[in-house]
Design a protein that fits this description.
Layout: E1 10-11, H1 18-30, E2 33-36, H2 45-59, H3 63-67, E3 81-83, E4 102-106, H4 120-123, H5 126-150, H6 162-165, E5 177-183, E6 198-201, E7 207-212, E8 219-222, E9 228-230, E10 248-252, H7 254-259, E11 269-271, H8 276-279, E12 285-292, H9 306-315, H10 326-338
Parallel strand pairs: 1-2
Antiparallel strand pairs: 2-10, 3-4, 4-5, 5-12, 6-11, 7-10, 7-12, 8-9, 8-11
Helix pairs in contact: 1-5
The chain binds 2-oxoglutaric acid and fe (ii) ion.
Amino acid sequence: MNGDSANIPVIDISSPTVEVAKALVNASSTYGFVFVKNNDIGIPPQDISDMFELSKTFFQSPVEIKEECSINSAKSGKNRGWLSMHTETLDPSNQKKGDYKEAFNFGEFVNGKADQPLPGPLAAREDDIGQFIDKCHNLCIKILDLFAIGLEIPESAGGPSFFTTRHDRSKGPSGSVFRLLYYPTLPFLPTDPLDIRAGAHSDYGSITLLFQLPGQPGLEILTPSNTWASVPVDPSPSSNPNPSSIPILVNIGDLLSYWTAGLLKSTVHRVIFPYAEENKGAQDRYSIAYFCHPLDDATLVPVPGPVVEEHVKRAGEEMNGAPMTAREHLNARLEATYGAKVKFEGSG
Ligand SMILES: O=C(O)CCC(=O)C(=O)O
Ligand SMILES: [Fe+2]
């Protein structure tokens, strides 16, 4: 733990040129994390603030309300609903105790409606949540389009629409998840150094959008030199902090890494507690994530085109074994993180 700040690039994708696409590929092959400026790219800052307000209202609700839609109940469906403290263990080979966080997972909406029961405070805002998810998905589509351009995928293989056709929600189900996260402050920090807010992991999907709030740090990435570096909430704060100017954090997940034979990095990250000397005055941390996944049946083989081919030659990367589908990969990862704590009763 060294607290150094990660130097994650900030990219303006508002005009989608080849240069922007190249910059995005370069940043993602170095850091696996990149900020995109939030200037007219489809997610108004006010919507983000409203979603954080809703998240606070929900997590501060009585436990019985949250429990109604527990991830453990058959009616919520697989990987959906409320996760109480310690339900998920993102780094099962090191953690003795599950993550010190709560979360609420929304699966894909169907015809604008949640395909799972929602507790009262969230049900009251179902339409707003559905629209926010659509905006997140559309931003992911813009970014995936740029990746295909930057990777120079040939027209014969789908060209710029290689990834977007594989993320076309009208064509079938995917594992995409919209998630509200809540990391309460504790009066005393746990004494076991293995205890953590969110254990070290990489994300399971194609890309993740992550929203954070000023004054609520804690996210760290594992750098290529194997040290932890903190991810700022706002990489270029002005003298007058303004939530509407905070860029959106984009994180490469496992699947884009498979698709590019490791050229794009699915970087390991975690969320730590405040340092002891800061714990007393620290705020709770709220974050919001949109995990964008391809269609369940998408196969994970390296994409054609000179960029990935040259990387394979240079790095001597090889893809071994039979190609996996997106769903097979997701199921394997979910099993590892929830272990015996979540029984997806009667739900595929
Ligand atoms: O809360 C955060 O900032 C990160 C959460 C995260 O990495 C995850 O849920 O996959
Ligand atoms: Fe993550």
